[in-house]
Amino acid sequence: EAGVVQSPRYKIIEKKQPVAFWCNPISGHNTLYWYRQNLGQGPELLIRYENEEAVDDSQLPKDRFSAERLKGVDSTLKIQPAELGDSAVYLCASSLAGNNSPLHFGNGTRLTVT
Amino acid sequence: QKEVEQDPGPLSVPEGAIVSLNCTYSNSAFQYFMWYRQYSRKGPELLMYTYSSGNKEDGRFTAQVDKSSKYISLFIRDSQPSDSATYLCANGVLSGSARQLTFGSGTQLTVLP
Lengths: 114, 113
Known about the structure:
- The complex is a heterodimer.
- Chain A is 0% helix and 48% strand.
- Chain A is built from no helices and 11 strands.
- In chain A, 36% of the residues are buried.
- Chain B is built from no helices and 11 strands.
- The relative contact order of chain B is 0.34.
- The model of chain B has no long low-confidence stretch (mean pLDDT 92).
- The chains are: A mainly beta, B mainly beta.
């Protein structure tokens, strides 16, 4: 079984520039999550999708962050414009629906904003 | 106060030692308790999860939950250099059909050969 695939692995941009991250979840996983992990911290949820629907985006900074999950499979997270404080690892995770389904994480995209 | 607290370490132990990693939480609504392992520059991977107070064992790993004191532990027996990683405590509630997880900051463990 292929795992959660994220790209790119690393991204360095200047502040005020846009950036996008892509995630391909495990086949058949209805639920998709985007987390942000700052250095030395645990992951923090940004947004959760059930199929195509964003069901929890309360922690997503909507002034500059946007996300989409077209067709309920792949997802893209965008930041425009990026700020210095956005430097972090952006993790995508997926799971089957249901309370016994573990989250499977990708290896993340490490973003550095200069 | 964070909802889930962990001692950040770093913790260094010799190979073969018994490791104890601890986590406390403040939210009484948490229904299940997980431990994730995260290697450097990798995503977290689930080690163990449990819904109830008591012990759960899986090979060299034992998770212990005490809901009355809101205290969670992970024990690693016969620790190996390959156990060197950051261990994240994650607690959660059900939100719709999916879990809503709150992670601790993690404890960095190094097992010395």
